[in-house]
Amino acid sequence: MRLKKLPDLCRKLNMPAVAVTDTNNMFAALEFSVAAQAAGVQPIVGCQVDLAYLETPPGGKTRRRPRRWCCWRRMSRVMKI
Question: Model confidence over 21-33: pLDDT tens digits?
Answer without folding.
Answer: 888 888 888 889 9
